[in-house]
Design brief:
The complex is a heterodimer of chains A (303) and B (545). Helix content of chain A is 50%, strand content 14%. With 303 residues, chain A is α/β, with parallel strands linked by helices. With 545 residues, chain B is an alpha/beta fold. Helices cover 41% and strands 9% of the residues of chain B. The longest helix of chain B is centred in the middle third of the chain and has 33 residues. The N terminus of chain B is likely disordered. Classes of the chains: A alpha/beta (303), B alpha/beta (545). The interface between A and B is medium-sized, with 15 and 17 residues.
């Protein structure tokens, strides 16, 4: 399966089901690659090929989730010892475990939603940022639970993703208002809690998300409003940024920009880093965690 | 210890001398008995020398809870104490209790093991009972009532109870007891005396003077302490070997020499005797300079390795095995760990960085030199403080490599910090609650860096992680020689006669603790972790062992 086929398969996955997280689409592609791959002779060779595939996928879609999902997939399928001497046997076992992994993580979004919607009280005013499918799921389950609440969404330039979120919420009959990114400080005193999604959860317990999240977090801290993050566990990534500058460049910009543009200093970054001190709780399919517990979970997942 | 039975009747000794004369090898039982005899004799002699008649009186009122099969002459009526639930029987060799059979040596083979155990238990209880009324002095000790199972008594370490005279007396006695040869008091480890007026907040800690090293009080030749240990102790107390890695490595090398020169005495087992031999050395080193957390972990490891030596192992084999263990420990935990930490740390150094370091940390220096080799472009600011001025050594080494450096004293910290992009700190130990124990001044740097929003990175190998918990720098610390604070400028020494001023105290602290909120990242050989994850690493390490 060569590079273009891979990317095509990935894009088809995303197109067919817009609800699917990009990490899941990436993992499906990797699984497909594993099934079709004929060239690998040894397990080490197979791992090499998979790592290369992940790199190519990252070139297609530079979000943090693709990178973290890919690495977790690799770990999951090769973690326990594969004792079969025959390579094809090994591959079969790997494929089986890959399917298992995929099934587990497809259910993670609903698990998160189930955990989080109880934190939304009746009559709450919620502030969220940009468009996140996990947050949408959470609000959906809260609405299904007959709770009454209003939502404020930031417009989230430069791609106005916030407006799409507002449309989706209106379809669910939830009262929603779109506010400018600059109006976050103004609106903070009215809201009761802030819920955001995450593109990646880093080792320190901080998150990487659409640009503007850090601002939101600082404001909510200043007003003492709880700041909740909802993220699936496959978004945990082995990065440890110390500040905004420390986030690797390949995550900051869209994949096309990275390839096309020469001088990245001219471009505007698409994500920012929120440190753990500003986050109250993280809702994941592993449970409700404090930022310091994220490192614990990561050690369990990766070591 | 309860003087329950008569001292060994002539019968026992005859037995053993008989078998010796016959050239037979002593059986295990007989070896144990010999050992106990020796210990008992030692104790008796001590008792006669020190304690008054009252003590011996107390000793002579034993409590028998289970009537031994052969009644012992001096035993009196059973006590009022309840029978112990199931007091665990201590390992026979280490127990100072004398459980020789009762005075009918002819019946020795007739006594079953169970009866011996019962007697030993009885002796234990008597001894504990005898001790109870006598220990009224230190109320700090948490002694659990006798009716419980052998309790996990957590005692405060003696080095933080210096102002309690009873504790000091106990330490002196312990040092005396740790002589390995059964003759006189001239071979004991001397107790170092405190020097100068101590500031009241720290009066519970030792304060020694460098001008009075412990080694002056030792006789020559010192038969108790191995010469390489004496040398090491002197190097510690004079500050010739300083820095936690250097001290641990020097300690391990000295122990290697001790092991090479060691021969198992007859009728002893290497695994037990060597550990006992090391005890007085460790006390001696502790007296020269309090042990660091890293040294404590190294010693625990060695003791574990020694006691794991199987008893049928030949002496030469055992010794080579121990030497390779020690070499491997140094290689894995210190040398290779430094390489791993450098690898992670170099990822965090980007071109154009301005890095601040404090004092001299061998690990941080290593990292900076490696990063410079890998052609990262950065410059270093070295912060230094009196009285040790260790930063000068760091400065010298970095400049030698060609790294561009700036040197300031800690008082200029807030002036220079706006220029800094990262702070790299070394650590003496990482405590179980995430606090970082390091050279005094480190917490100050972390605090000011946090205010300026500069990331603080601590680099520490995992062998320095310790299970202790401490939230402030007062409860356990080290006080250095107060005379170091005196400085001579333009021919005048201002504090020359500080001892004469009764209300003046000089405080020369060595360590302080930094809370985890000020530390952004800890780089260990296992990877980069947040400061709050230290207990997770400790847990994972304990699982591995």
């Amino acid at each position: 399966m060569d590079k273009d086929e891979l990317v095509e398969y990935f894009r088809t996955q995303v197109r067919q089901d817009p609800e699917v997280p990009s990490a899941v689409a990436a993992i499906r592609t990797l699984l497909e690659f594993l099934k079709r791959d004929q060239t690998g002779e040894t397990i080490l060779g197979l791992r090499e090929n998979l790592t290369q595939t992940i790199r190519r996928l990252e070139e297609a879609d530079s979000s943090v989730a693709v990178s973290s999902g890919g690495e977790l997939f690799l770990r999951f399928i090769s973690l326990t010892s594969l004792e079969h001497p025959d390579l094809s046997q090994c591959k079969k076992v790997m494929v089986e475990r890959g399917e298992l992994f995929l099934k587990k993580i497809s259910l993670s979004r609903s698990k998160v939603a189930k955990l989080c919607h109880t934190f939304i009280k009746d009559g709450a005013k919620i502030l969220t940022h940009s468009s996140s499918r996990v947050v949408l799921k959470v609000l959906e389950s809260a609405a299904a639970d007959k709770k009454r609440f209003t939502v404020y969404v930031t417009e989230s330039q430069p791609d106005s993703a916030g407006r799409q979120m507002a449309d989706k919420l209106q379809n669910l009959n939830i009262p929603v208002t779109v506010v400018l990114d600059a109006a976050v400080g103004y609106i903070m005193e009215k809201v009761d809690l802030v819920i955001v999604g995450a593109e990646g959860v880093v080792e320190s317990g901080g998150i990487i998300n659409k640009i503007g999240t850090y601002q939101l977090a600082v404001c909510s801290k200043a007003h003492n409003k709880p700041f909740y993050v909802v993220a699936e566990s496959f978004k945990f990534v082995r990065l440890y940024p110390l500040n905004q500058q420390d986030v690797p460049e390949r995550f900051k910009y869209k994949a096309d920009t990275l390839k096309a543009v020469e001088d990245l200093a001219e471009e505007h970054p698409m994500i920012d880093y929120t440190p753990p001190s500003l986050i109250t709780l993280l809702f994941t399919d592993l449970g409700v965690l404090t930022p310091s517990a994220v490192s614990d979970e990561l050690i369990k997942l990766y070591l | 210890m309860a003087d329950c039975g008569e001292p060994d009747g002539p019968g026992n000794k005859d037995d053993i001398t008989r078998s010796k004369n016959e050239g037979k090898e002593l059986t295990k039982e007989e070896k144990q008995r010999l050992r106990k005899q020796k210990k008992h004799q030692k104790k008796q002699k001590e008792r006669k020398n020190e304690k008054g008649p009252s003590e011996t009186e107390k000793d002579k009122t034993p409590v028998s809870l289970l009537p031994p099969p052969q009644p012992v002459a001096t035993q009196k009526a059973p006590s009022a104490l309840p029978a112990p639930a199931s007091a665990p029987i201590p390992v026979p060799a280490s127990a100072p209790f004398h459980s020789s059979p009762a005075p009918s040596p002819a019946d020795k083979p007739a006594k079953s093991k169970a009866e011996l155990k019962a007697e030993r238990r009885a002796r234990q209880e008597t001894d504990r009972a005898a001790k109870q009324p006598g220990s009224s002095s230190s109320g700090i000790k948490t002694k659990v009532p006798l009716s419980e199972l052998n309790p996990v008594v957590k005692r405060l370490p003696e080095h933080v109870q210096v102002d309690d005279p009873a504790v000091v007396k106990r330490l002196a006695k312990k040092l005396e007891r740790q002589q390995t040869l059964p003759y006189g008091a001239s071979n004991k480890i001397p107790l170092r005396s405190d020097y100068g007026y101590k500031v009241s907040l720290f009066s519970h800690l030792h304060q020694y003077s460098r001008k009075a090293p412990l080694t002056q009080l030792l006789s020559i030749p010192s038969t108790v302490i191995h010469p390489s240990i004496v040398r090491l102790g002197l190097q510690y107390s004079q500050g010739i070997v300083a820095g936690s890695n250097a001290r641990s490595v020097a300690l391990l090398h000295a122990f290697k020499q001790v092991i090479r020169d060691y021969t198992t005495p007859p009728n002893e087992e290497l695994s037990r005797d060597l550990v006992n031999k090391l005890k007085p050395y460790i006390s001696f080193l502790n007296q020269c300079r309090p042990l660091s957390a890293s040294m404590g972990n190294a010693i625990k490891y060695i003791k574990k390795e020694i006691s794991n030596i199987p008893s049928q192992c030949k002496e030469e084999e055992a010794k080579t095995k121990l030497l390779t263990c020690i070499d491997r420990y140094i290689e894995e935990k210190i040398v290779l760990a430094a390489k791993a930490i450098s690898k992670y740390a170099i990822e965090k150094i980007s071109d154009g960085d301005v890095i601040l370091v404090y004092g001299y940390s061998s690990l941080v220096n290593n990292i900076l030199c490696e990063a410079f080799e890998k052609s990262r472009k950065f410059r270093v600011i070295v912060v230094d403080s009196r009285p040790r001025l260790e930063g000068r050594e760091a400065l010298r080494r970095l400049v030698q490599r060609g790294i561009s450096c700036t040197y300031v004293l800690i008082s200029a910290l807030s002036y220079i910090l706006p220029e800094v992009s990262k702070v790299f700190l070394g650590a003496h130990a990482l405590l179980a609650n995430g606090y970082v124990m390091s050279r005094v001044g480190t917490s100050q740097i972390a605090l000011v860096a946090r205010t300026y929003n500069v990331p603080v990175l601590v680099c520490c190998e995992t062998y320095k992680f310790c299970e202790r918990v401490q939230t402030d720098s007062f409860v356990s610390n080290e006080l250095d020689d107060p005379d170091d604070l005196m400085v001579t400028r333009k021919g005048k020494t201002q504090l020359e006669n500080w001892q004469d001023v009764s209300s003046l105290g000089l405080l020369n602290l060595v360590y302080d603790v930094t809370p985890p909120d000020f530390v952004d990242l800890v780089i260990t050989d296992l990877g980069m972790i947040p400061c709050t994850s230290v207990p997770v690493v400790l847990r994972v390490k304990n699982l591995d062992q």
